[in-house]
Specification:
Elements lengths: L3 H47 L5 H18 L5 H10 L4 H30 L3 H55 L17 H4 L5 H12 L4 H12 L3 H40 L2 H27 L6
Length: about 300
């Protein structure tokens, strides 16, 4: 088992990477096409609002929410982080949905503060704001998300080591006790209960960890939100622009919430399967290793696309 499980784990990670490599480009192209369509709708709604046409605000919010949803299908927006955390930690789907929605709304709020504050207080240009978002904040966000992936890897490695050690201890004590004819009432197999403390594998064990998740996503505002807010500023539609960006955040949060529920469901399926095959204590650490590895791989991929530093 000590050799077989790591080999299975490596095979699963390799398969996931191959699938992601093949699936990612086509999905990204689809997302870009949909974004362009909704960007046109947003532009029409903004100018209709400027002309005081009836229903323009509703049209703007609807187009912004739809844009946020399809934009979240592409790179970024923390869905990979939320999905990885759902897969690799013992967090409920409801709580993870709340974290995902909070991160999307925090991202929208940060976009409003950055654009309106930058244009009003710092007197920066639209080009400078876009450059700050893409060249500075995006890499910071990817690195922060990658750090959380590294934390999952560390927890998974530690948890797997403990699980293997407990299994070895149990096998040794099991054979020793059987040789001496001793019985134990603590478990149905006649041996002391052998499972990891849930606190060791839970993840998200403090408010600080939850806040780190939210901030690692929110630090990089959506480019579409930045552009919308710049246009709203130029047309003196500040409140409408802010409301539309919040709607965009809700659309993004809807997609992230779907990812959250899916990842928790997948984790539950894996745990049930593991219990049926007798490797339950190793399930959580292995899931953390898979989630952490995929998060780091995705972050490195995004940094390479960004042309950032040594990842170019």
């Amino acid at each position: 088992m000590r050799l077989g499980l790591p080999l299975i784990l490596l095979a699963v990670v390799a398969a996931a990477v191959v699938i992601a490599e093949a699936w990612f480009p086509s999905l990204a192209v689809w997302a870009i096409e949909q974004q362009r369509a909704f960007q046109n709708e947003i532009a029409r709604a903004v100018y209709a609002l400027r002309a005081a046409e009836p229903g323009a605000l509703v049209a703007l919010m609807s187009a912004a929410a739809a844009y946020g949803f399809v934009h979240a299908v592409g790179p970024g927006h923390g869905k990979y982080l939320i999905g990885g955390v759902g897969l690799g930690s013992r967090v409920s789907s409801g709580r993870l949905v709340g974290i995902g929605m909070a991160s999307s709304l925090a991202q929208a709020a940060w976009a409003i503060v950055l654009v309106y504050g930058g244009l009003w207080l710092l007197r920066v240009s639209a080009q400078q704001l876009t450059a700050i978002t893409e060249d500075i904040l995006a890499p910071i966000s990817y690195l922060a998300i990658g750090a959380i992936g590294a934390l999952l890897l560390w927890r998974g490695t530690s948890g797997l080591s403990r699980a293997v050690q407990q299994r070895d201890t149990h096998v040794h004590s099991h054979s020793h006790d059987h040789g001496h004819g001793h019985g134990h009432a603590e478990s149905s197999c006649g041996c002391p209960a052998h499972r990891l403390d849930p606190a060791q594998i839970a993840g998200l064990t403090s408010f600080r960890e939850v806040l780190a998740l939210i901030l690692s996503v929110a630090v990089r505002p959506c480019t579409g939100a930045v552009l919308l807010l710049i246009i709203a500023w130029q047309l003196d539609l500040l409140l409408a622009g802010a409301v539309a960006v919040v709607a965009m955040g809700l659309g993004t949060g809807a997609l992230v919430s779907l990812v959250a529920v899916s990842s928790v469901t997948l984790r539950g399926f894996a745990q049930v399967t593991a219990r049926n095959t007798g490797i339950a204590t190793m399930t959580a650490p292995c899931l953390q290793l898979i989630a952490g590895g995929l998060i780091i791989w995705l972050c490195v991929s995004f940094l390479r696309l960004q042309g950032f530093g040594g990842f170019a």
